[in-house]
Amino acid sequence: MAITLTEEQWRIFQLLVPAKQFKAVHDLVNETGLDNPMVMGSLTYGESEGWLTIQEQQREELVPAEGANEILQQGLPERQILPLLAEKNSISMQELAQITKEKNIPMNEIIKWGGQRGWFMKNKGELAITEAGRRALQGADADEQALELALHSEKFYLDTLIEKNIDEQRVKELLAKRPALAKIKSRTIRLIELTPTGRELLSGDIRVVREQNQLTSDDIASGEWKNIRLRHYDVTLPAERIYPVKIHLMQKIIQETRTAFLEMGFTEIISPQVESAFWDFDALFQPQDHPARDMQDTFYLERPKIAQLPPEAVVKRVQLTHENGWETGSTGWGYQWDRRRAQQVVLRTHTTATTIRALAANPNPPRRVFCVGKVYRNEAISYKHLPEFFQVDGIVIDEQANLATLLGTLKEFYRKMGFSRVKFKPAFFPYTEPSAEAFFYMESKKTWIELGGSGVFRPEVTRPFGCQVPVLAWGLGLDRLAMLRYGFNDIRELYWSDLDKLKEVSLCQ
After folding, report:
1. Domain spanning 249-273+348-504 has what CATH number?
2. Residue 213's Cα: distance from chain center in Å?
3. Secondary structure of the chain: what % helix, strand, coil (to 5)?
4. Annotated domain spans of the chain
5. What residues form DSSP beta bridges with 455?
6. Which residues contact 353 (CB under 8 A, 6 or more apart)?
7. What is the Cβ-side half-sphere exposure of residue 99, based on CA atoms within 13 angstroms?
8. How far apart are CA 188 and CA 45, in angstroms?
């Protein structure tokens, strides 16, 4: 008995006839070049006719992250430190910090993952190697082996590890929370097998027709209409999911931040990302021997190396404030201020450099200004730290301003951004007194995450620029805000080239 098939159906079914075992849907898609809905529609039709069976199988796929190969070739952070630990048996945390900075290895990942693997243990301020760590020198761990295999496979499923004597559970434990290396994704694999009836019919007489949406006058005139079947559409079949174009998550947070402060009556200001140490540190009464000014924490430029300072009268007042307090009522820091340090060129470490410039340009109340921009700090990369990130800084210059005004302003800003569970804690900054840090509760990690610092500028900051009234100031991190808004556990996810993740995240949150 002859059966009638479309050209597309025949392209699919003829691949099943010689198959001796189940054939996966994704293999049929690849081999025919047809899209997934077309293939599934044909298979569903074949199943309804009793020609084939469709079975579903749940599997876990190991998907290496972009850059995983480079990390693996260089050696995971915990593996890079293994030979040194094996040689010395143990290293003090202070020495380890120095080594990791020199080698640009994240110290927190060494401790975290080395401890989770059982390679290292902390004891009285030292990191010591274990017997398991010494054995690790002899070869790759389970996750390293699995990642190497996945990097050289088109698709790699964890259930195949048993064939290679690799511990699947250990791979999951070590890679499940390490997205910088790989992700473990659940996949539904559909397997197709012909029934005896289907194999007999599809091996027999087949009439192949062409499917079209409609007949043309040429089809009718030529008689070709006899070999054409009008296409039926099954509206219940899964279709390709279409994602509308959307703004990047970080840009959306920046735009919402700008809107929030503009609605609160603030004026937006800007300043350069390449800044002088004078505006970044000295103008804010930060002493020249402060740890934040070390090269381990701040990026200094070689070209240009020297920045132009503001008018000499302003520089002199700032110098005297540092040395003896000038006319601020303070005793200053009690050291000899160095003009050359103030002339150093840095990548700005905070957008407070912008707001202090604005205050110096116009110290007269009332004023409310804010700045959104990128800042840079020589930070070790982790789930909550990046060497470059976005901040929003602002100041309020007002005769009636006080700490209550500051906290109310910030609380209103966070309310506009959709965050209600915010709290403030007392803090210390060289340029504000009193000072407070803002925290938001991160439900996924069951912990409070710091969002930024704030306070009332000290007279040592405002008086040299001719401001005689209270000035409220804050600097808040926007990347962490975005991380919390969109439910990311790792701040780096905002910048990874994971288009699927970016497509799927809902902007209305």
Report:
1. 3.30.930.10
2. 46
3. 40, 25, 35
4. 3-51+195-230, 68-181, 249-273+348-504
5. 435, 473
6. 271, 275, 279, 280, 283, 284
7. 17
8. 20
Query: Residue 335 is which amino acid?
Result: Y
User: Which of 501, 444, 445 shows the shortest CA–CA distance to 185?
Assistant: 501
Q: How far is CA 313 from CA 111, 145, 393, in A?
A: 51, 65, 26
* Regions of the chain short of the pLDDT cut 50: none
What is the DSSP annotation of 334-373? Answer: -S---HHHHTBEEE-S-THHHHHHHHHH--PSSEEEEEEE
45-96 tens-digit pLDDT: 899 999 999 999 999 999 999 889 999 999 999 999 999 989 989 898 888 8
The helix/strand/coil state of 328 is coil
CA 461 vs CA 10, 308, 331, 433: distances in Å: 80, 20, 13, 11
Beta-carbon neighbour count of residue 3 at 10 Å?
Answer: 14
**φ and ψ at residue 438, rounded to 5 degrees:** -95, 135
Rounded CA gap, 114 and 7, in Å?
Answer: 57
The amino acid that residue 432 corresponds to is: T
Give the relative orientation of helices 249-263 and 478-485 as an angle to the nearest 10 degrees: 110
Fold for the domain defined by 68-181: Arc Repressor Mutant, subunit A (1.10.10)
CB neighbour class for 226 (10 Å; exposed up to 12, middle 13-18, buried from 19): exposed
Dump pLDDT digits (tens) for 152-187.
Answer: 998 899 999 999 999 999 999 999 889 889 999 998
Instruction: Enter the pTM of the model.
Output: 0.56
Tokens describing residue 290: 């402060």
